[in-house]
Write a structure and sequence with these properties.
The protein is α+β, with helices and mostly antiparallel strands. The chain contains five helices and two strands, in the order ααααββα. Strands 1-2 form a two-stranded antiparallel ribbon. Bound molecules: zinc ion (ZN) (2 copies). It holds the Pfam family HNH.
């Protein structure tokens, strides 16, 4: 069982082709929509998608159970959900993102 505890381990994981594939599958499954906004009944219109591009930088594929504690679920699509930037930040309050006024740019390395 691989471990994803260190930054390097996570970075390697988020750069792997297995993750890239699964991530796209999760986005497709969720129709490129934020699942949390959907649950709250909000219509989240993704500006970039509207402009006709398939992939959006505003959406993140989130691990419902963090890979750090659940490495066996790292590549389980059932453990993934598509979240917009705002909702994703709320999922990780312990990491302190979003506390300052700087816009937060998420990338795959920040899961
Ligand atoms: Zn959202
Ligand atoms: Zn996340």
């Amino acid at each position: 069982m691989p471990e994803y505890r260190s930054k390097e381990q996570k970075r390697t994981f988020y750069k792997s082709s297995a993750w890239e594939k699964l991530r796209l599958m999760a986005l497709e499954r969720d129709h490129y929509e934020c699942q949390q906004c959907k649950r709250e009944g909000k219509v989240h219109v993704d500006s970039i998608k509207v402009e006709g591009q398939k992939k959006s930088v505003e959406l993140n594929v989130h691990h419902i159970r963090e890979i750090e504690n659940h490495p066996e679920l790292a590549l389980e699509i059932e453990n993934l959900e598509t979240l917009c930037l705002g909702c994703h930040n709320k999922q990780h309050p312990e990491k302190g993102f979003g506390k300052d006024k700087q816009p937060i740019i998420w990338d795959d390395e920040r899961w």
